[in-house]
Amino acid sequence: MKPYISIVVTTRNDNHGGDLIVRTSTFIKSVFYQAERTQLPVELIIVEWNPPTNKPLLKDVLPTPEKNSFVSLKYIIVPPEIHQTYKTAESIPLYQMTAKNVGIRRSSADFILCTNIDIIFSNECFDIFKQKTLKQNVFYRTNRCDIPSQITSYKENSEMLQFAKKNIIKRFGKTKKMETLHLPKWFYNFPNFCRILNYTILALWKWTHPNQKPYFTLDFEACGDFTLMSKNDWNKIDGYPELDMYSIHIDSMGIWAAYAVGMEQEIFPHEAPVYHIDHEDGWESKDAVKTIKFLESKPCLDYSIVNRAGLQIIRQKSSWNINDENWGINDKKLQEFVF
Questions:
Q1: For residue 177, which phi and psi values (nearest 5 degrees)?
Q2: Summary mean pLDDT of the chain
Q3: Least reliable range by pLDDT among 14-23, 175-184, 194-203
Q4: What are phi and psi of 264, to 5 degrees?
Q5: What would the 3-class secondary structure string for the chain be?
Q6: Confidence of residue 292 (pLDDT cuts 50, 70, 90)
Q7: CA gyration radius for the chain?
Q8: Could you give the CA distance from residue 182 to residue 201 in angstroms, rounded to a whole number?
Q9: Chain centroid to CA 164: how far?
Q10: Mean pLDDT value across residues 156-177
Q11: Is 5-174+219-338 CATH 3.90.550.10?
Q12: pLDDT digit string (tens) for 134-149?
């Protein structure tokens, strides 16, 4: 049965972020649970980049689907000899966005979601997938809600989701038709007021900042945890830009490119988020001063230059044109394991 959606993530078995096996197992079980609950055919692709030689491959330690499951689980191995061809290979052990491109190029479904290995899907999010109403020429976003790591102590997915709804630490992302607003939660109980405020702010912004509406309305918050579009549309923008750099802000470049070539943004309802298992080394949880030291040996993009360049490609109505035709290491035959 052809999958309706491919879910693409990347990782390596070095315990990055802490409790990696536990968090990844929780993520995989969430996909199994939601696919079974909705009876939706799903392809789950895990790209294992530059696997450590002193650890087993993740396929040997992570959960596999039960027989007759609605999930096809595929591992793709990017070996160390490919990783070592990058200039910053010693300081950056995993090129996250290039690895996700590997999964995009080798996916089977018509729609592809790029996310991360510490995500738990809400029922409401997967119910949208179940409707099979995703469209071409649209990129989809949803909110990410951080939740305490003790969620992994629950065995049943239903218990996890109850815990997640009641224990949100922080919410990231915009609200459909209220993209300019960042208000306390209780404000959204007055939707008409919020819509008027949103349109007023947007009108003032367009008047004072000509041609910069996308900067104000596109949803870049935690976009590495949820960017969904058709495979044709991922191909249209050549996936994520493949840069020999740390991954921060490269996920945003995928959003800029999609909008620049004419795609529309669609934000899932507030009630349909994904939940992110909080961990000490997570980008938002990390000590800000320690983060500066962490980035010392890792070349990375500056937020302001990405935004300037994004507005430029929107004016030009073009993608980044950074990747060559073999993006996603498509000229190499990589080892795959399918369950």
A1: 70, 5
A2: 90
A3: 175-184
A4: -95, 150
A5: CCCCEEEEEEECCCCCCCCHHHHHHHHHHHHHHHHHHHCCCEEEEEEEECCCCCCCCHHHCCCCCCCCCCEEEEEEEECHHHHCCCCCCCCCCCCHHHHHHHHHHCCCCCEEEECCCCEEECHHHHHHHHCCCCCCCEEEECCEEEECHHHHHCCCHHHHHHHHHHCCCEEECCCCCCCCCCCCHHHHHCHHHHHHHHHHHHHHHHHHCCCCHHHHHCCCCCHHHCEEEEHHHHHHCCCCCCCCCCCCCHHHHHHHHHHHCCCEEEECCCCCCEEEECCCCCCCCCCHHHHHHHCCCCCCCCHHHHHHHHHHHHHHCCCCCCCCCCCCCCCCCCEEEEC
A6: confident
A7: 20
A8: 12
A9: 19
A10: 92
A11: yes
A12: 999 999 999 999 999 9
Query: Which single residue is written with the structure tokens 């119910």?
Result: 127
Q: Name the β-bridge partners of 267.
A: 141
Select the more confidently predicted residue: 206 or 268.
Answer: 268
* Residue that has been written with the tokens 């309802």 in this structure: 269
Beta partners for 73?
A: 44
Tokens 């989809």 -> residue: 140
Q: Which residues of 191-204 are buried (b: 16+ CB within 10 A; e: fewer)?
A: eeebeebbeeebee
Question: Is pLDDT at 183 greater than 60 in this prediction?
Answer: no
pLDDT at 282 over 60: no
Q: What is the C-alpha to C-alpha distance for residues 191 and 300, in angstroms, rounded to an integer?
A: 39
Note the pLDDT tens digit of each residue in 228-265.
Answer: 999 999 999 999 999 999 999 999 999 999 999 999 99
Angle between helices 20-38 and 123-130 (to 10 degrees): 50
Q: At 185, is the pLDDT very low, low, confident or very high (cuts 50, 70, 90)?
A: low
Instruction: Copy the structure tokens of residue 95.
Output: 């090129």
Residue found under tokens 């991922």: 234
